[in-house]
Design brief:
By secondary structure, the chain is an alpha+beta fold. Helix content is 42%, strand content 15%.
């Protein structure tokens, strides 16, 4: 997660999206090839499983802790005596990131994922087939869709060679144990959701079908009637981000430079407009090129890797000290100075280089915002990054164009010690606070444990407390004039600041501080947490009631419920209550976020405890059921052997949906009472959803 406190209001527009209750296919298309076309009998060959992942999705690898949470990719072979599995499954260079919701590192693929499994060929015509299980997820919407495909390898030419072993081949399911030699760490990439199709393995033209499906997917996506509205909303959010970027400290050194350059220019108005247009063109060009060549990996590199995060920490810390009056900011040297020298040459080329200088100097502060734009716009798209960067830079260029048009405005601004210096000092305190966020990201990702939650909060409490005293005139910085009286705006701002400080104090002992949930280190890093319950909540399930799989699964917040669909319906009929179905998954990030931010709400919990029988159905659980419980699905004609496979099949067949989280309110026969609900972080909407279901049940 990785967002900046100052920009949260705007950036949330990028990532909050409605999730529609439509049946979706897993977002990966598989092909199966051999590492070489010919092999001698008794020799080994690599089976290559290649997943072409939709441009807005990712697939988990197979080489991290299987108990961490997400669903690992596995390939299960049908047993026979024509080949034997040699060694472990080897994913090829998956990416890696730390996911706070799991409190651990996961590995995954985007765009293309390759797995290799070595086998020994024992017969002239080896029969190599089986079934894969995997999970595709969207970085932005958080939807996770399980997939299970049949695979078959054909076309291997076997010639006479070394004799085979007499021993029985060791054939079976390929495990997902970690093979560290095959892992290469890379930066993660965040992408948006898209529509796609699953291609069944075994066809001779699988690759062609996969390509055709991907093409059709993009065509359907472009014909989505909601796309135009989404594009307008994205452009507006990008424009607002540009306005927010004007508050960053890198902007201030450019103001006097801009005004001084345009003071004595001939054709000043035309050149001022050219200046603004040049800013827009340069930012748009940079953003588009980066998104096309590097995709959102560039943005995630800015957001997660320790190098840019410590660099931004240093930049914000230095700017904070400068704005507090420790020293003056000077323009960067080297390349930027060369650009500035060319700007001094005058003419239209000079105007362009002035704009280029502005972009270079400001990018150290606007980089995180631009990076977030690329996350929301990249992934192979052409129009969206152009519109996003153009909108962002247009807002960013407006005040500089005005300064260029009217350079004499600078003379009317108060000198040092006036309101402008007050703004700089306030920004200085904010820069110090934001600097800690950058350091905290690196600290969490690399497990340094130098800035745990209580230490982070202690810094923020002190920083914002000092800011409040500064606004009241109790603290003066080197460039401040004496404050004889406190103006009403300063007084109101100090009230807001101290209120924020008081709000943060309980967080030192475990208060959840939901408003800051995305910006603070995880609650698990607290050394002393009073929020942890020492005793369970009384159960709303009758004593002695048998609950299948209760030893495997648990509901959050001490809620009690069922984990088997039929058990829940039977108990609901006994107590005459409607059923709340939670289609969830171990690897569903948004499921955990809903539980942490919506289910925790007292009004939601009260309704879940008293008005409903809860059943949580995990669609990615691998626990195998006894053979007597297996059945063949009417949806895909596959035998469903595990808890997760049967729950996923139920969601698809009965409720025409296969994305999580997915919440259904049903009667004793499993019939929907109201329209299902998906990812929505507004507790009030969830309360209304629960109330509408109860009313529909009572009215039946």
């Amino acid at each position: 997660m990785k967002r900046r406190l100052l920009f949260s209001l705007v950036l949330c527009l990028f990532f909050t999206q409605s999730v529609f209750s439509q049946l979706q296919k897993a977002k990966a298309h598989w092909t199966y090839t051999f590492s070489k076309p010919e092999v001698k009998k008794g020799e080994t060959v690599d089976l290559i499983f290649t997943a072409i992942v939709d441009k807005d999705w990712y697939i988990y690898s197979s080489d991290f802790d299987p108990d961490l949470g997400p669903m690992l990719t596995t390939f299960n072979f049908e047993k026979n005596n024509t080949f034997e599995v040699v060694g472990k499954l080897k994913p090829q260079n998956p990416k890696e990131k730390f996911e706070e919701v799991w409190n651990g590192k996961v590995r995954y693929f985007e765009g293309k994922g390759v797995f290799k499994q070595t086998i020994k060929v024992l017969a002239d015509n080896p029969i190599i087939k089986g079934a894969s299980e995997y999970q595709t997820c969207s970085h932005v919407t958080g939807l996770c869709i399980p997939g299970d495909d049949d695979f078959e390898f054909k076309g291997l030419k076997v010639v006479a060679g070394a004799a085979t072993d007499d021993a029985q081949p060791k054939v079976g399911a390929v495990t997902t144990a970690t093979d560290s030699s095959s892992v290469a760490t890379a930066t993660p990439t965040d992408k948006l959701a898209d529509t796609s199709f699953t291609i069944n393995a075994g066809d001779s033209d699988t690759a062609a079908k996969a390509e055709a499906a991907a093409t059709l997917s993009q065509t359907l996506s472009s014909e989505d009637p909601a796309a135009d509205k989404s594009l307008w909303g994205f452009a507006l959010a990008a424009f607002l981000s540009g306005l927010v970027a004007l508050l960053t400290p890198c902007v201030f050194p450019i103001i006097p430079m801009t005004v001084s350059y345009f003071t004595n220019q001939e054709k000043g108005k035309f050149k001022a407009l050219l200046y603004g247009v040049s800013i827009v063109l340069i930012y748009t060009l940079i953003g588009t090129v980066v998104s096309r060549l590097n995709g959102p990996a560039f943005a995630n590199f800015l957001s997660t890797h320790w190098i840019p995060n410590l660099l931004f920490f240093a930049i914000f810390f230095v700017f904070g000290l400068s704005f507090l009056g420790l020293f003056e900011i000077v323009l960067p040297s080297g390349f930027v100075n060369k650009m500035d020298q060319k700007a001094d040459q005058g003419g239209y080329a000079g105007v362009f280089f002035m704009a280029f200088t502005l972009v270079l100097v400001s990018f150290s502060c606007t980089g995180p915002i631009v990076g977030s734009l690329l996350v929301a716009s990249a992934g192979g798209e052409v129009v969206k990054p152009i519109i996003g960067m153009a909108s962002f830079s247009a807002a960013f260029a407006i005040p500089f164009t005005l300064f260029a048009l009217f350079p004499q405005w600078l003379k009317s601004l108060p000198k040092s010690g006036g309101w402008l210096n007050t703004v700089k000092v306030v920004l200085g305190f904010l820069e110090l606070a934001l600097a800690l966020k950058f350091f905290s990201i690196a600290d969490q990702v690399y497990h340094w444990r130098l800035l745990d939650r209580e230490i982070y909060l202690a810094f923020w409490i002190v920083i914002f407390g000092l800011l409040g005293f500064y606004l009241l005139g109790k603290i003066r910085t080197p460039h401040d004039s004496p404050l004889e009286k406190v103006s009403v705006p300063r007084l109101l701002l100090s009230i807001v600041t101290f209120t924020f400080v008081v709000y943060m104090i309980p967080g030192m002992w475990g208060a959840p501080l939901k408003a800051l949930a995305g910006y603070l280190p995880p609650q698990s890093t607290l050394d002393f947490d009073l929020n942890k319950r020492t005793a369970g909540v009384a159960s709303n399930i009758a004593p002695g009631e048998t609950r299948k799989y209760a030893d495997l699964f648990h509901l959050p917040h001490e809620l009690e419920g069922f984990f088997d669909y039929k058990d829940a319906l039977a108990y609901a009929k006994k107590v005459n209550k409607p059923v709340f179905i939670d289609f969830t998954g171990h690897g569903c990030v948004n499921c955990r976020e809903m539980e942490a931010r919506v289910w925790v709400d007292p009004a939601v919990q009260q309704r879940l405890r008293n008005d409903y029988v809860i059943v949580a159905l995990y669609v990615d659980d691998k626990t195998e059921l006894p053979e007597s419980a297996w059945y063949t699905s009417k949806y895909d004609n596959k035998v469903k052997k595990t808890i997760g496979a049967q729950n996923a099949d139920l969601q698809i067949v009965k409720y025409n949906n296969n994305a999580q989280p997915h919440y259904c309110l049903v009667d004793h026969d499993g019939n929907l009472l109201v329209k299902p609900k998906n990812y929505d972080l507004n507790p009030a909407n969830f309360v209304a959803f629960l109330d509408s279901g109860k009313a529909a049940f009572v009215g039946k």
